[in-house]
Amino acid sequence: MTRLAPLRFGCVLLGALAAGCGYTSEEWQVQVDKSTRLDAALRGTEAKLVESQGQAEQTKKRLEEQGRLLEAAGLDAARLRELVRQGVTAEERDRAVTELRQRAQRLEQARVRFDLLRTKVAELGLLGTSVGVDHDRITVTLAGDSLFDQGGKGAGKLSKDGKETLAKVAAILKSDPSLSTRDWDVVAHLDSKSAGKAREALDATLARARESLVFLVEKQGLSAVHFRASGRGDADPVASNDADEGRKKNRRLELVMLPSGDELLDLKPLTR
After folding, report:
1. 251 contacts: CB under 8 Å, gap ≥ 6
2. How confident is the model at residue 12 (pLDDT cuts 50, 70, 90)?
3. Which fold has domain 108-271?
């Protein structure tokens, strides 16, 4: 704008000088008309510059907002710049950002659910019990040695302490519809030393998972529609089986919250 103002002034000045050089009134009017048209054109150019500056500022703000959404969703903002370089239209970019915003909202909902569950389980003060994320699924882990009898004819059966522990966890799930109405997988694990042959290990862990499931459904009132049982044998260790401490961690029962169709997210950021 500062460059155009002197030009406009120059046009007016040129007309004034011309008037002093002997133009007739008709010739002078022509010069005035030219000056008026040029002045109008310059004003129009100024308006377009102001509009372009406003659009550029809006684009900058929108890109900044898109970058924040990408970061909130746990994605790389450089990806957005790459899409721009590839010629992706503004409409396509906005649609992608809308999807990312929805994804970020779902992740935040999952974070709230995760934090609430972790806090409630921690308040129980149960040794070897924790809440984490495993394979992008919220998981409640219970120490197997405290849940099941370890010897004699009752080996592998829920112990008295185990039933009390499961009852406390079930109470947490029942108290919150966002937890009780979700689908869960009750998964039992063994360490490699206790497992024996693969078939025996799978049978043993499946029996533990089923007994736990029956207790949760029949004794604690959780819906059988939302729970299933799985046995993994020693196929999914969380620690080394070379030492007693590691094997103890591998003997466990997990309550795994299954994701719904719109929750297939990377949940690792929840634990950061």
Report:
1. 143, 144, 145, 189, 190, 191, 194
2. very low
3. 60s Ribosomal Protein L30; Chain: A; (3.30.1330)
